[in-house]
Write a structure and sequence with these properties.
Length: 370
C-alpha cells in the first residue's frame, strides 16, 4: 500500500516515525459524461484565463484569492514552514474511553505503518499500551492544507487512525425527532426486544454491495447487446395500522426465516385469551310456518310443533345440530301437512258417498208411493 503522508507520532517525549496509508477503498462504479447524440466524451479542460490555453497538472499550483481579487501564490515549500507543531507530527493530546467518541464525528480511516526498524519498538509500546488500557488516543495532525482531529486505536496488530470532525462541525439534531407526543407501553417494548433477539447478530464480512452487483449486470448486458435484466417487483407497502400486530408478524417471519418454530403453544394461548370474540346471531329460517286448520287436529299439531320448537331451541349449541333440527322439523311438518291433506280428501269422499246413498233412498221411496 502506498503511503500518502510521512511524519511521526508524538507520544510525550517519544517520537515514532510513521507512514500514513489509506485504510479504505471505494469499489463503486463511476460513469463518464457523454454526448447523447453521438456518444462522444464530455471532458473538463483546465484552461488558463490569461493565456486562454489548456495547461497540464504539473503546471498547476495553489493560490489564495484576496478580498480585492488578487491571487497570492502558495507553494509546497511555504506550507512546509507552517508555524504549526502538527505540520508533520501526529500529536497525541489525551487518552479517553472509546464510548466518549461520538460516532457522528467519524471521518476517513487510515493505517499508521511503522517508518523503518527504529520505529518498531516505540510503535509496539504504544499499541500494547492502548490494548491494556482499553482506551483510544485523541490526536491532532495536519493533512491536505488544514489541521484535523484524529482518534488512534488498535486493529489486530496495527494502529489505525480515524479522522474526526471538530465538535462544532457536527450539527445538533434540532427539529429531527417527531414533535408528536407518543407513549410506548411495556408490551410493545417486549415485542421489539423479542424481534431484536430473533434477528440476532450477523457477520459483517457476509454483507456485500448488491447495488454494485446489479449495476455490473446491467453494464454487461448492454455491452453484449442484450436487454438489461428486469427489476423484481417491489413488495406492496402499506400503512401500519396496528403496531403490535406488525411486531408480532415480524417476530414470526424472522423465526421462520431461521427455521425456528413461529410461536410457542403458550404464546398462542395468550394471544387467544387477549383476542376478542364476537358471536354472530343465528340465522332465522326463511320459510314461514304453514297455517294450521281449525279443529282438534290443528290444536294437536300446534302442540307438537311447539314441542319441536322447544327441542330445537335447546339443541342450538352448534351449527350442525341446529341445521339437523331444522331439517327434522321441516320433514315432520311436511308429513303432518300430508296427513291433514289425506284426512280432508277422505272426509270429502265419505260425504259424497253419504249424499249419494241418501238421494237414492229418497228416489226409491217416491217410486213406491207412486
Amino acid at each position: 500500500m502506498r503511503s500518502i503522508w510521512n511524519g511521526a507520532i508524538s507520544f510525550g517525549l517519544v517520537s515514532i516515525p510513521i507512514k500514513l496509508v489509506n485504510a479504505t477503498e471505494s469499489h463503486s462504479i463511476s460513469f463518464r459524461q457523454i454526448h447523447t447524440e453521438d456518444g462522444g466524451r464530455i471532458r473538463y479542460r483546465k484552461v488558463c484565463e490569461l493565456e486562454e490555453k489548456e495547461v497540464s497538472s504539473a503546471e498547476i499550483g495553489k493560490g489564495y484569492e484576496d478580498a480585492d481579487g488578487t491571487i497570492i501564490p502558495i507553494t509546497d515549500e511555504d506550507l512546509s514552514h507552517l508555524p504549526l507543531p502538527t505540520a508533520k507530527t501526529i500529536e497525541i493530546v489525551a487518552f479517553v474511553p472509546t464510548d466518549r467518541i461520538d460516532p457522528l464525528q467519524m471521518d476517513a480511516a487510515y493505517y499508521l505503518a511503522a517508518g523503518g526498524a527504529p520505529a518498531a519498538k516505540p510503535y509496539t509500546l504504544l499499541r500494547e499500551a492502548l490494548k491494556r488500557s482499553n482506551k483510544v488516543a485523541i490526536a491532532k495532525f495536519a493533512l491536505r492544507g488544514k489541521e484535523r482531529l484524529g482518534m488512534l486505536r488498535v486493529v489486530e496488530d496495527a494502529i489505525a487512525m480515524h479522522g474526526l470532525l471538530w465538535p462544532d462541525e457536527v450539527r445538533a439534531p434540532e427539529g429531527v425527532a417527531p414533535d408528536t407526543k407518543v407513549t410506548v407501553n411495556d408490551k410493545e417494548l417486549d415485542l421489539a426486544d423479542a424481534l431484536m433477539d430473533t434477528l440476532g447478530e450477523i457477520d459483517l464480512t457476509e454483507l456485500h454491495d448488491e447495488y454494485r452487483e446489479a449495476l455490473e449486470e446491467v453494464v454487461a448486458a448492454k455491452a453484449a447487446g442484450e436487454a438489461p435484466p428486469e427489476a423484481p417487483e417491489a413488495a406492496p407497502g402499506g400503512k401500519v395500522l396496528d403496531l403490535m400486530a406488525a411486531l408480532e408478524k415480524s417476530v414470526r417471519a424472522a423465526k421462520e426465516s431461521r427455521g425456528e418454530e413461529p410461536a410457542e403453544a403458550g404464546e398462542e394461548a395468550e394471544d387467544a385469551e387477549d383476542a376478542e370474540v364476537t358471536h354472530l346471531p343465528a340465522r332465522k329460517s326463511a320459510r314461514a310456518t304453514p297455517k294450521q286448520p281449525s279443529g282438534r287436529k290443528s290444536t294437536s299439531t300446534a302442540k307438537k310443533t311447539a314441542a319441536r320448537k322447544t327441542t330445537a331451541a335447546a339443541k342450538k349449541s352448534t351449527a350442525k345440530s341446529t341445521q339437523g333440527t331444522k331439517k327434522t322439523a321441516t320433514k315432520s311438518t311436511a308429513k303432518s301437512a300430508e296427513k291433514r291433506t289425506t284426512a280432508k280428501t277422505a272426509a270429502k269422499t265419505t260425504a259424497k258417498k253419504t249424499a249419494t246413498k241418501t238421494a237414492a233412498k229418497k228416489t226409491a221411496a217416491r217410486k213406491r208411493s207412486a
